[in-house]
Design brief:
Blueprint: H1 13-18, H2 20-27, H3 41-54, E1 58-62, H4 68-76, E2 81-85, E3 99-102, E4 119-123, H5 129-138, E5 142-145, H6 159-163, H7 188-196, E6 197-202, H8 223-228, H9 243-247, E7 256-260, E8 269-275, H10 282-289, E9 295-300, H11 304-307, H12 318-324, E10 332-336, H13 342-349, E11 359-362, E12 367-368, H14 371-384, E13 388-391, E14 393-397, E15 402-404, H15 407-410, E16 413-418, E17 424-427, E18 432-434, E19 445-446, H16 448-455, E20 459-464, H17 467-481, H18 490-500, H19 503-513, H20 521-524, E21 529-531, H21 538-542, H22 544-559
Parallel strand pairs: 1-2, 1-4, 2-3, 4-5, 8-9, 8-11, 9-10, 13-19, 14-20
Antiparallel strand pairs: 5-7, 6-7, 11-16, 12-20, 13-16, 15-21, 17-18
Length: about 550
């Protein structure tokens, strides 16, 4: 275990040391002589030095306390516009007319007007590494993070804790204050920092922490362990002129400077689709994902079951949609073939997978997502490094006005998996990705109930809408996969009478079969329909009349 930097900064240890005397003249003018609970000289010097080095146009200060740091930032960068944030502004002892104060949380402010490259974010709000993730998501690059405790001390998870090299992971249920219990390099937080940061630099202490209230004694580690994870101090000999640095040396807590890659570094997602005679909402599916895709990989063609029925390719207009779909960014790769089963079909498009993709998002050709929901997912993946994501389905039935509840809503549709070089589909049912290399990320699942209930993210699944769609789905699943679980003559005895019937007829059918799912009630439990009172994705909504016309045309064909 050793201290490890990422990248290199534009100053030397000598530059820091040579600035100590100059800073003392500034520090001597501080308005708050006793800043208990706030920064003292060891971190004030760092803040002053870095601010002068960067000389930003804007400074965002989150965490004011009494206002000493606000004053310091003014002294270091008199021409900068300073925005200071704290939920308890009433605690300020220093208040400047030149500073914009607010109690609004950093992440809730619209930062779009600011030049991100010319802004320094100074965080002393104890929000942890999540605050750095927020800053990166907003596009900020320059971050100074103050109380950077190494082992979960304080009330949040800090960059130091996720960055220490060569650490052993915690055993289940273990919680000690030894550095060896810090999170290992294969944690989402540590990996995120390494991928998101061009620079991670811990300022060295001015003096080594001999008897610290916040260093090795406070952290309950040995002095040897402390020195091992801490950069060498600027000074070793005590000088009378610098005694205040020695007096306040115990307040050092690995204050660090981070340069993030910026907002342009987002997760790259490849969308994977298998399709055969799937021209129902195929165009809408493609439109809903195209802006967010690094790649869209499609395997078209029949599995063995449909080959035995005489098919070699789609005959319902699927290929025409694929061929005509606009692809100005050359994202779409298509393979046309025949397959033994859907496992093989999924792996057929993986030949086009570029190695810089972080995730594979598999979806069916009747699944559509709202743009804001895709953006929410991408932000969560970027910040939290989930390895898998499941969705709760809004499975529409017999049109666009009702959807399935019960069994269908209780099911988790696993759609997103983390991938590595050489990853492949081991099974399509359930969707499972296997890896040929050691997995450096611990499994971390984003639960479908949390997405739906807390964030309102659902998968719009037009899976039981069109008569042709249901008829072909039944034929394949009943005859090929689940013949013993499916209801007899489901299409003619349940689906079509339900679609053609009035409200009373629909209710009678649902009461008899505990809903309208093709599986037998004993196999799946209840699965009723309920009115849809929300809004369809705008892409579907914009084409709703054409889709309804398609539904009516197919229904009429079965009447004939």
């Amino acid at each position: 275990m050793t201290y490890e930097a990422i990248g290199s900064v534009g100053w030397s240890k000598e530059d820091l040391t040579n600035s100590l005397e100059e800073f003392l003249q500034v520090y001597d003018k501080r308005p708050i002589r006793s800043n208990e609970g706030g920064m003292t000289s060891t971190h004030m010097f760092v803040t002053w030095f870095l601010s002068k080095q960067i000389n930003p146009k804007h400074i965002i200060e989150s965490g004011i306390w009494k206002g000493q740091s606000s004053w310091l930032l003014e002294m270091a960068c008199p021409d900068a516009k300073i925005i200071s944030i704290d939920p308890k502004l009433e605690l300020r002892q220093y208040i400047s007319p030149n500073i914009q104060y607010t109690t609004t949380d950093f992440d809730d402010i619209d930062w779009e007007p600011l030049d991100k490259d010319e802004t320094l974010c100074f965080f002393d709000d104890h929000y942890g590494i999540d605050r750095i993730k927020q800053a990166a998501q907003h596009g900020f690059k320059h971050i100074l993070y103050e109380d950077n405790y190494h082992d979960g001390r304080g009330n949040s998870f800090h960059p130091k804790y996720g960055h220490l090299a060569n650490m052993e992971p915690l055993n289940q249920g273990e919680r000690s204050h030894s550095p060896k219990s810090a999170l290992s390099l294969n944690t989402p937080e540590g990996l995120w920092l390494r991928e998101a940061a061009d620079i991670y630099y811990e300022f060295p202490p001015i003096y080594s922490d001999v008897d610290s209230t916040r260093g090795y004694k406070w952290a309950k580690i040995s002095r040897e362990e402390y020195l091992d994870i801490t950069a060498a101090p600027l000074l070793t000999d005590y000088k009378n002129t610098l005694d205040i640095y020695a007096d306040e040396a115990p307040d050092y807590t690995w204050i660090c400077y981070i340069i993030c890659k910026g907002k342009e570094r987002i997760m790259k997602i490849a969308f994977g689709i298998i399709v055969f005679n799937g021209n129902y909402v195929l165009k809408e599916t493609l439109e809903s994902i195209y802006p967010y895709a690094n790649q869209i990989l499609i395997a078209e063609g029949p599995v063995q079951f449909w080959q035995d029925e005489g098919y070699t390719t789609s005959t319902d207009g699927t290929n025409e949609v694929l061929d005509s779909f606009p692809d100005p960014e050359n994202k779409i790769k298509i393979v046309h073939s025949q397959y033994s089963e859907k496992d093989e079909q999924c792996n057929a498009y993986m030949q086009f997978l570029e190695q810089d993709n972080d995730y594979i998002w598999n979806l069916d050709c009747d699944e559509v997502f709202k743009p804001q929901d895709v953006e929410t997912i991408m932000e969560l993946l970027e910040r939290e490094r989930y390895t898998s994501v499941g969705f709760k389905s809004l499975s529409f039935y017999g049109g666009f006005d009702r959807y399935l509840t019960g069994f269908e809503e209780r099911a988790e549709f696993l759609r997103i998996r983390k991938i590595y070089p050489g990853s492949y589909w081991s099974t399509h049912r359930p969707p499972t990705v296997a890896h040929r290399t050691n997995n450096p990320w611990p499994e971390k699942h984003l639960d479908f109930n949390y997405l739906a209930d807390s964030l309102g993210v659902r998968m719009y699944h037009y899976s039981y809408v069109f008569p042709d769609q249901v008829h072909n789905k039944l034929k394949y699943y009943r005859e090929s996969l689940n013949q013993h679980n499916c209801l007899d003559d489901y299409f003619n005895q349940i689906y079509m009478p339900w679609v053609k019937g009035g409200a009373a007829d629909k209710q009678k059918i649902e009461d008899k079969y505990q809903g309208v799912h093709e599986w037998k009630p004993a196999s799946r439990g209840d699965c009723y329909t309920t009115p849809f009172e929300g809004t369809h994705p705008r892409i579907v909504l914009g084409n709703i009349q054409q889709l309804k016309d398609k539904f009516d045309s197919q229904l009429e064909a079965y009447h004939a």
